[in-house]
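=== RUN LOG ===
request id: a7f3
mode: sequence -> structure
chains: 1
length: 127
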Amino acid sequence: MLFTGSKDTRILAQDYRSRMEVVMEFQGHRGEVCGLKHDACGLASGSNDNLAFIWDLSKGTARYKLEGHKAAVKALAWCPWQRNLLATGGGTSDQSMKFWNIESGKLINSVDVKSQVCSLIWNKHDK
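=== RESULT ===
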């Protein structure tokens, strides 16, 4: 599958093996979709509507709507060593990283980083 998000607020799932046929469409955002991340836990999306969503790929519906950012959510990263942990980053008017338990859809922590967050990458620091 190839997932794409666009200015029209939709996320499309396309099967690259069969002429990029659209096999699923996800709707829920009210602004341009500007961030997507997929892993075994599911698909996460961020948007200019200040929201992030966790999508149920088997049903094509939103599993959780993650609210709390005060600007666009462009940065998303699944934690590679802790299942069900998602980090999101907010834009200029938000300047925070938020950490979510996507089993419950609950906010775990929020950190003010004093700048917009454009990208997130996890790094496990071994001592």
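=== NOTES ===
The longest strand covers residues 33-39.
The mean pLDDT is 93.
=== END ===
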